[in-house]
Design goal:
Number of helices: 9
Shape: globular
Structural class: alpha/beta
Order of helices and strands: EEHHHHHEHEHEHEEHE
CATH architecture of the largest domain: 3-Layer(aba) Sandwich
Helix content: 40-55%
CATH class of the largest domain: Alpha Beta
CATH superfamily of the largest domain: HAD superfamily/HAD-like
CATH topology of the largest domain: Rossmann fold
Number of strands: 8
Length: 222
């Protein structure tokens, strides 16, 4: 049986947003399903689950391939983001998120690292008064390749000035855990539901951010 360290040393924390910090996946599904239905497509939970963590551009490409309607990325992403932000007040912050952010703020650098569009990420974080918690915010607009590529996490580490192996990624999705692992970073996975394969890329799999806080040891940069 492999040895599992009781704690994971972190010199920086990189937080995903959707599904990790905020309980936004149900709202995403409703908004995306409404968009697909308006164009004659039936967006199912299975299709949505396969797109979690990979960004809205990927979701639109899957819709176009699956349902055969043409997609204008700029226009359609804007429409979906507008619909989502109009209902962003419905989103709840995940248990343990504020506590972990409060415990880490000012101790180690913290970044939000999400595949979502900049306008969306900032809109959600501002609505929850979380922007000031982060030393950097990296979005899908800031890199060429979204998750599961490592680009977002590597850019977050660069902006924080911390070597990738000393950054700890907090993720809920398989795509995000894959990205963190590919970036050479320890990954704490907090899956919202059963996610086969996530344990292959995660250093630890925990139930919630309270448990994540318990397994992280915060270390100030030497």
């Amino acid at each position: 049986m492999p040895y599992i360290a009781p704690v994971i040393d972190a010199y920086a924390l990189l937080f995903d947003m959707d599904g990790l910090m905020v309980d936004s996946e149900p709202l995403w599904f409703e908004v995306e399903r409404g968009f697909a239905r308006s164009r004659g497509g039936d967006w199912t939970e299975e299709l949505a689950d396969a797109c979690v963590g990979k960004g809205l551009a990927n979701t639109l490409r899957v819709m176009s391939t699956t349902f055969g309607f043409a997609v204008d990325q700029a226009r359609d992403q804007g429409e979906i983001i507008d619909s989502f932000l109009a209902r962003a007040h419905e989103i709840a912050i995940k248990p343990g998120c504020r506590e972990l952010l409060d415990a880490s703020h000012g101790v180690v650098p913290i970044a939000a690292a999400s595949s979502s569009a900049r306008r969306l990420v900032h809109g959600v974080l501002e609505g929850l008064s979380l922007v000031a918690c982060f030393d950097a915010i990296v979005t899908g607009d800031d890199v060429i390749h979204p998750k599961p590529a490592p680009d977002i996490f590597l850019e977050a580490a660069r902006r924080l000035g911390v070597e990738p192996p000393k950054c700890v990624v907090l993720e809920d999705s398989l795509a995000g855990a894959t990205a963190g692992h590919a970036a050479g970073m320890p990954v704490i996975a907090v899956p919202e539901h059963e996610t086969p394969g996530i344990e292959r890329f995660a250093t630890r799999v925990v139930r919630d951010l309270h448990e994540a806080r318990a397994v992280v040891r915060l270390n100030q940069k030497p």
